[in-house]
Amino acid sequence: MSKEEIAREAIKHALKALRKRHLVEEGAHAPAIIALSRPIISQGSEWKEKADNLETELQQCYKAQSRLSEQLVVEVAESRSSKALLQEKESLITSLQEELTQIRDECSQLKTELEEKIKALELVVSENQQIRAQLEEMTMKAKNAEAENKMLVDRWMLQKMQDAERLNEANALYEDMIDRLKASGLEKLAKQQVDGVVRRSEEGAEFFAESTVPSTCKHKINAHEGGCASILFEYNSARLISGGQDKSIKLWDTNTGSLSSTLYGCLGSVLDLAITHDNRSVIAASSSNNLYVWDVNSGRVRHTLTGHTDKVCAVDVSKISSRHVVSAAYDRTLKVWDLHKGYCVNTIIFHSNCNALAFSMDGQTIFSGHIDGNLRLWDIQTGKLLSEVAAHSLAAVTSISLSRSGNIILTSGRDNLHNLFDIRSLEVCGSLRATGNRVASNWSRSCISPDESYVAAGSADGSVYIWSISKADIVRTLKEHTAPVLSCSWSGLGKPLASADKNGVVCVWT
């Protein structure tokens, strides 16, 4: 039964109960009716009391009826809302049943697809097993073929090594013959020495006398922006080469002070320069961790030598061959390069960084100056340390310059000393200093005159000091620079002298 019907039944029962109560009350009021026959005066008070009681009971019945009506209205409203909620739940149940049916259909479809996938997977697994077996068989064949190939390569490499050894022997014989020819040429040159005048045997020969002490600045050239750290003269020539922080290499005619050509391609500041004895190739040590080799005639970069992991601060080329180059970098290594092949053939690792380098005259040993103040001698073939001497006490070596005869080596240091060593004994044969002379940087380069009579070195005050080796005293002080002088170079012709400073100015002195 619904709540409405239950409410109606409750009302009916209530009405029946009221009727029964009225009947009972009528029976109870029977004495009152009987008493109506009595005189009104005698029964008036009794009737009034009974009437009040009945009226009170009637009001209570009305109140009860009102409460029941209100309860009936509330229950009817609740019944209607429950009925609406029931209908909503029934519709939701219907939609859920439909969705459940759809999901069951999809589940059965997926189950069918899964069974198909399982069958396909079993087929793929069986095929994979077959392919794996074939792969193992092919791998075994490949290993056998690789072993055979390796054996063939080893045989081929052995044959090539034998060919290379024969070629090296032929090259060694050829170089030995060239060295003998050069030695005989040097002997002939030595025999031509007469009254201090030496005739040059190279092409473009000219006579030159003893080196002269320069006194005048012939040319003042603004060569490089940001500074010029390295200058050098071509062999048997008055043409000057300079390298600076503007990443360029410039060739100058010192007779006119004009620019001959410019070499581009360096990716960092130029810290040091070297040139092969045939004047065909210029090598630059760069702050970009590389060395660059130019062909002077074409002006093109022939090699970029990579392998250092820090800035390359020093470079030199063998005096008897255009093939071997040595470099030093702040990665604590010295590297020997083969210019014909274009790669490093030997690496020397040492705990102290090297600031300056020089090849010996025979091209078999290397001199290196280090920041710990020591001068060291290395074997180019084995990389072994042959000798070591304390050149400057607890002060970095900034420059190494080999004399033209190869008998004297000049070292300069941050202790403001310029020491001359006898190559044969590595003993100090002279020590030069001046009150105002102060070495400007860790890469300040000094030089010896071609006739081994003078030493020139730049100073932090912009002066160029010139000492007489025989007198161990200053013979001249050149003042033209306004910035610290970083490099000095003396032409092999005996004059001129060139100097470069931190502002990139190059002075040519005569």
Automatic annotation (TrEMBL):
It holds the Pfam family WD40. WD repeats lie at residues 221-262, 263-304, 305-347, 356-388, 449-477, 478-510. Residues 47-168 form the Autophagy-related protein domain. InterPro entries: ATG16, Autophagy-rel_prot_16_dom, WD40/YVTN_repeat-like_dom_sf, WD40_PAC1, WD40_repeat_CS, WD40_repeat_dom_sf, WD40_rpt. The keyword Repeat applies. The keyword Membrane does not apply. SMART domains: WD40. One of its GO terms (biological process) is autophagosome assembly. Residues 51-184 form a coiled coil. Keywords: Coiled coil, Repeat, WD repeat. CDD domains: Atg16_CCD (cd22887), WD40 (cd00200). PANTHER family: AUTOPHAGY PROTEIN 16-LIKE, AUTOPHAGY-RELATED 16, ISOFORM F. This is Autophagy-related protein 16 domain-containing protein.
